Sequence to fold (290 residues):
Amino acid sequence: MQEQLKLDNQLCFRLYTASRLITQAYHPLLEEIGLTYPQYLVMMVLWEQDNMPVNDIAKRLYLETNTVTPLLKRMEAEGFIARRKGEKDARQVIVSLTPKGRKLEGKASCVPYQMGQAVACRSITEKTAPELFRTLDDLIGTLSK
Amino acid sequence: MQEQLKLDNQLCFRLYTASRLITQAYHPLLEEIGLTYPQYLVMMVLWEQDNMPVNDIAKRLYLETNTVTPLLKRMEAEGFIARRKGEKDARQVIVSLTPKGRKLEGKASCVPYQMGQAVACRSITEKTAPELFRTLDDLIGTLSK
DNA sequence: TACCTTTGTATCGCAAACGATATAAATAAC
DNA sequence: GTTATTTATATCGTTTGCGATACAAAGGTA
Fold:
């Protein structure tokens, strides 16, 4: 058995698992406000900056448009967002918040705190978090090129 | 705009993105040997310990059996593994490597090294990796309870 | 103007993930 | 020994994620 092929020696498996378990932890919180985790990400993008083309949302989330488009259609069907043709560039589809979508920001405001409680553990503290953030940002930067 | 609701302040989004980008980086390597990333994880489990019940594989990967069962069926259809009823406990399904599946370990032996190259970045070194591993293990431990 | 290339979205198909639920075998309770 | 409960898998339906591809609008180029 090659040492490198062992699951316990793999960074990737840890990230994959941590990501999935965190999404699961979000589930009950986001269910309350009627969002899935990827939909919550889209809403965070729009709360920061409304009226964005599909492409910009996709880039911000490191997703492809073929993932984002169906996501947005479901969110439109739920009444959280609206989609309209771009005026300058008719190829673009501009995504904007509906009143319902804007109002959701208030309801979601407690989610980060509640998640903070859920992921609270010895290894992640005020002191160590910035280092972890830098490492992940570096990794994401490397892989997204 | 609430500071905590910003994407850039979220650990979860970083993990989610890093995980996805790593899986994408695996894709061309695993395509060579005919596996998807989750299938590769299952193979790593079996290369370490053959003849495992579905449940044990699922637990090892922190997945549910309703995810693993279809995965295993596809891998069985590809001829990498075999599934048989447990002798002692007729409810169990024991998963074992086929000769083709065992032979794959040799072909996969270069994958960890190649992935190491792909994720190589300033922040992840011989020195910092153990710390990162501990942090993620702690997080996974906390969330999986 | 006509043609070519690029860009922005969308469609299609397949493989995860996972909640909810079903089923059968094993075990416990009575 | 029958009934109830637990346990091990599996089925179903929905949402992601993404490679491959299609298509129309925009921007060159001849």
Summary: Chain B is about 60% helix and 10% strand.
